[in-house]
Amino acid sequence: EIYNKYIDKPFLFKSNILNIFSKFKILNILDNIYNKISTYINDNHLRQVFSFHSLLIGGNPFQTSSIYTLIHSLERKWGVWVPKGGMYSLIKAMLKLYKDLGGQIILNTTICNIEVNKNMIKKVYLNNGKFLKTSLIISNSDIIN
């Protein structure tokens, strides 16, 4: 019910996102998974069973938002989908498409400096002394970097 009413909607404008934020208090999704499960289940062992799925995403049931409790109902409603060949086959297909479109991927390289002119990226200087002329950088580094 929560998914259909509040989440399964397009977020085309900032106001759409703000609208869902206003429902957070009603939905109590800022609470953690374990506490949310505890409002429905008294047995501690069953609480652990129904809280474990946050561990699969690297979360902690005592810290992960209870919005993830929707996973059970979504999987029950639509099932679980996986790409043929596993998740890595999806990564390989995306990489191939990106390269076929002319994209370049550089891995395990440290960026020393980014030259910016008029709020536009001009050059990226690498730790090996080389530089790249580019107008776009996509990074998946940790925020600390």
UniProtKB/TrEMBL annotation:
Superkingdom as given in the UniProt entry: Eukaryota
Cited Pfam families: Amino_oxidase (PF01593)
Gene3D superfamilies, per database record: FAD/NAD(P)-binding domain
Start and end residues of each Amine oxidase domain: 38-138
Ranges in coiled-coil conformation: none
Alphabetized GO MF terms: oxidoreductase activity
PANTHER family named in the record: PHYTOENE DESATURASE
Protein name: Phytoene desaturase (Lycopene-forming)
Organism (species): Cacopsylla melanoneura
